[in-house]
Every structure is written in C-alpha cells, then in structure tokens.
Specification:
Elements lengths: L1 H8 L7 E4 L3 H12 L4 E4 L16 E4 L8 H8 L3 E2 L2 H8 L4 E5 L4 H14 L4 E5 L15 E5 L2 H5 L8 E4 L7 H4 L2 H9 L7 E5 L3 H4 L8 E5 L6 E4 L2 E4 L2 E5 L8 H16 L4 H9 L9 E6 L2 E5 L6 H9 L5 E5 L12 H7 E6 L4 H8 L8 E3 L3 H11 L5 E4 L12 H13 L4
Parallel strand pairs: 1-2, 1-3, 3-4, 5-7, 5-8, 6-7, 8-9, 9-10, 10-11, 15-19, 16-17, 16-19, 17-18
Antiparallel strand pairs: 11-12, 12-13, 14-15
Helix pairs in contact: 5-10, 5-11, 10-11, 15-16
Length: about 425
C-alpha cells in the first residue's frame, strides 16, 4: 500500500502531511494515516484559527470537504507547492475492486442507497458510503466485492485519481454557489466523477448533464420524459422494450424518485447486476429519512418530510412530483440562490406557502410577483408551522416540508429540522 501511495502522491515517511478538519472525514483520514504509520498533524479552525505557521513546510494537504480551498492560508500553502490529496484519492488509489460513483444536485443519497440494496440482493459484499453514512476510508474491507460512493461537489473538486467502473451525474441545479461561484463551476466539479474510462450514466432530461457525454465511452441514459435506455412509458419502468416493473410498484413519493430508480437500475446494469433481483430490491425500498418521507396522515392530511431539500432544485423536483397542489413549507439559509427560479413551480403546484427562517423574505418577494395569488404565511417555529398547515389544509391535502434552503440559521442540521417537523405534527390534536 505504501508503494502505491508513494507512486500516486509521493507520500512517504518523510512527508509533512496536514489534515484540515476534525469532522468525520478528517477523523477517518487520521485513522488511515495512523495505520500506515505516516506522520501528520490535524487542525481545525473551529478550535484554533489558522496561521501561516499551521501550514509551514507542508508537503501534502488533505482538506475535508466542509472546508473551502479558498481559505487564505490553505490557498497560500497550495500556491507554495503543497500537494492536494483527498480521502477519495487515497481510497481510489488502494482499492482493487469496482467503485461506482454517484453525484448530482439532488437524489444522490437515494440512488446510492437503492444501488447498495440492489447489490446486496445480488449477494455482493458491498460498501456503501462516502458523502452518505460512513466516509470512504472507513468502508475499506478486504472482503468487499464492490463499493458504491455518494460524492459531493466538494469531494470531487479535490479528487484526481478516481476511475469509477460506472458513474452518474443525476442532475445539475443551483447549489453551493456560495462556494462554487456559478453554475458552470459547480457542473465542472460534478463532472470529475467521469474521470477515467468507466460506463457513463446520464440523465437525458438534463441538458447540462447530457453535455458531459463522451462518445468514446460506453453510456446508458435514463429519462422520465422520453425514450432512453431506461425510461418511463405507460406507467411502467422500462429497459429498452422490456417492462421492468409497473410504476405503482415503486414505493416512493414523487416523479423525481422514478428518475432516481431508473438511474439506479442503469448503474446496476452497467456493473452486470442481475436486473430481476435489482427490480425486487426496488419494490422493497424504503424512503430515506427526511427525503420525501411520509411521516403521518393526521386529520386526513398527508404530512411529508423532505427536509433534505436544501436547494431550489430539490424543492422544484419535489413539487413537480405531485399532480395536485400542495401546502409548501419553505425557507431557511438561501446560500445565495436565485429564488426567482421557484416562481413557476410555486404558481403551478402550491395552494399555500408557509415561510420559515432567515431568507423567508426573499421567497415572499418572489411569491408577491406571481400573477395568481398564492396565500402566504410566516411561522417562527415548527409548532406554528404545523398549526397553520392544519388550519389551512383540508382532508386529502398534502403538507410538504421542502425548504429549498439550508437549515443552519435555525436548526443543528436538516435532520434536526425534519425531526422537529415530525414532532410538531405528532403534537397536533386529533
């Protein structure tokens, strides 16, 4: 293993390695380096501010995804010649079984979990993680047949040796523009997942994803709007001319989850998993917590927790998955997104909107410009949200928490936001 790391990254016992960030990724890197008896220091600006001494004479920087490479002292160290290595680089360099990579603005956790379930149904010893659950280096297992990794744009922008046997960019929409500056830079970071020569799985319904096509590579496409390799037709999930399963057998809310299911089937096919067993796994799939999760039917109202929708694209996908209008709960930390993108889907799909959090006024300004009035309410916390929604909603309605924003202005994280939503519904009188 040491020989591989020396060859790929010039990492030796004499290297001066600095690991930046003491979160789960940084901790996994530290454990890995300890096992290899490599010398390193680990730093975190939340505990002690960075100084020029922090990175003096550093040969290798391993920067956790949550830390921006534009951080002045990090940028200075990189400009001075420090090599940037990621945990995904280390993982990809030493693993000798297939890696499947999954990224996208929305849906990547669902597709990663779906594909992991499919591989298990095919009796594969599969490691599932990355940006979801366990960090990549904590997945290392000599008995593994396959790894399925969810990868964020932050992980990909600092990765250089990944060669996934199959990979997908599920979609591109505005997210993390506070770190990537613009949509093109964000898309370029995502496209790193297609480094190498593996099978490309592309969303035929997304122009920015389709533009990533390399005609020299084996490719599968998926679509919910048109014929593709994997597609939706006559309420069936299809592969070519073969009906794989009826739409009614997919136990998930929303048309975007049909797209996710088709992507997972395409990836499974790309690595020769048994498609019948993959379909069986899909039929038994359980929605992930905080991702289009039906948490209750109370007083005849369906309450759906999509707190993981921390960007506009995720909220739009959630709303477009419904045929009927819903009561939308939105707002939080907007991350520099253009809220005007919400206007047409709110007009078409929201019978009312309940606004929360710091950037609620930005969303309200968009709603106020709509040609048709959409009733708008403000709530200070989830108890008030639930009370308003229960008053506005009627039997048969859906109340959808799909905030289009991050949660840290009011909550510990999106999970905490979703849990408080569920608790507030539970506390409503019958």
């Amino acid at each position: 293993m040491q020989n591989i790391l020396k060859e790929k990254f010039d990492l030796t016992a004499d290297s001066k390695i600095v690991v930046v960030g003491e979160g789960i990724t940084g901790t996994s890197v530290a454990h890995f380096l300890e096992l290899l008896a490599l010398h390193f220091s680990i730093v975190d600006s939340r505990k002690a501010p960075f100084t020029s001494e922090t990175f003096k004479n550093t040969t290798h920087l391993i920067v956790s995804p949550g830390v921006s490479l534009a951080e002045p002292f990090i940028a200075e160290a990189l400009n001075a010649g420090s090599k940037l290595v990621s945990d995904i680089d280390l993982f990809a360099a030493i693993v000798n079984v297939p890696i499947i990579g999954i990224t996208g603005a929305n849906g990547k956790s669902t597709v990663t979990t779906m594909l992991g379930d499919m591989a298990k149904a095919c009796d594969k010893n599969v490691g599932v993680g990355g940006n979801l659950g366990k960090p990549a280096l904590d997945l290392l297992d000599p008995a593994a047949d396959l790894y399925v990794l969810e990868l964020s744009s932050f992980q990909l922008e600092r990765s250089h040796v990944l060669n996934a046997v199959a990979a997908t960019v599920l979609n591109i929409s505005a997210d993390h523009l506070d770190r990537h500056d613009d949509l093109d830079n964000y898309a370029q970071a995502k496209q790193v997942i297609f480094s190498g020569n593996g099978v490309m799985v592309l969303n035929a319904d997304d122009e920015m994803v389709l533009a990533m096509l390399d005609t020299s590579r084996k490719t599968f496409t998926f679509s919910v709007k048109q014929k593709a390799d994997f597609y939706l037709a006559d309420n069936n999930l299809m592969y070519g001319e073969e009906i794989l399963m009826p739409l009614s057998a997919l136990p998930l809310e929303g048309k975007h989850n049909v797209s996710n299911a088709l992507a997972a089937l395409a990836l499974g096919t790309a690595v020769s998993l048994d498609i019948e067993l993959c379909v069986k796994a899909l039929k038994n799939f359980k929605a992930l917590n905080h991702r289009m999760q039906k948490v209750s039917t109370k007083n005849g109202i369906n309450w759906v927790n999509d707190s993981k929708a921390t960007n506009i694209g995720a909220c739009i996908a959630a709303l477009e998955g419904y045929d009927e209008k819903v009561i939308l709960i939105a707002g939080g930390e907007g991350k520099g997104q253009d809220m005007n993108e919400l206007a047409p889907v709110i007009q078409a799909k929201a019978k009312a909107v309940i606004l929360i959090g710091k950037d609620a006024p930005q969303i309200e300004a968009v709603i106020n410009q709509l040609t048709e009035i959409v009733p708008t309410y403000h709530a200070q916390d989830m108890q008030e949200v639930a009370a308003i929604a229960a008053h506005v909603g009627k039997s048969g309605d859906t109340v959808l928490l799909s905030p289009a924003c991050a949660s840290l202005d009011q909550y510990k994280n999106y999970q905490d936001r979703g849990n408080q939503f569920a608790a507030a519904i539970e506390a409503l009188p019958a």
